[in-house]
Amino acid sequence: MNAVTNYGEAIRFEGGRLAYIKPIGVDEARALGVIPSDITLPEDLTLYAIHAADGTTIAIMDNWASAYSAAVQNDLIPLSVH
Fold it and tell me: How far apart are CA 34 and CA 59, in angstroms?
């Protein structure tokens, strides 16, 4: 166990289950290889990347609520990165 333990209750945060949600731009998403170059998107569009605890990109969503929901549905603990 590597983050928090509450001895009164079994509250544990395991680093492998954390998911970081970070706003990114279209250029960064293209650099990650998740948006094909032939897809046209507004350059000022904000996307939301979900990253595993080790930094691996898991998914890109078009809004924060979807990113949060996807993390929770996959038994991950979502954290926001600003």
Answer: 8
- Provide the pLDDT for residue 12: 53
State how far the alpha carbon of 36 is from the alpha carbons of 3, 31, 60, 68, 74, in Å: 37, 10, 13, 24, 25
Q: Which two tokens stand for residue 57?
A: 């990109």
pLDDT of residue 4: 43
DSSP-derived 3-state class of residue 57: strand
Beta strands in 1-82 (DSSP E): 5-6, 11-12, 18-25, 46-52, 57-61, 77-80
Query: CB–CB of 11/68 below 8 Å?
Result: no
Task: Tell me, yes or no, if the pTM score tops 0.70.
Answer: yes
Query: Averaged in consecutive runs of 10 residues, what is the pLDDT profile of the chain (82 residues)?
Result: 44 70 94 88 94 90 95 90 72
Residue 76, token pair as written in the block: 């991950």
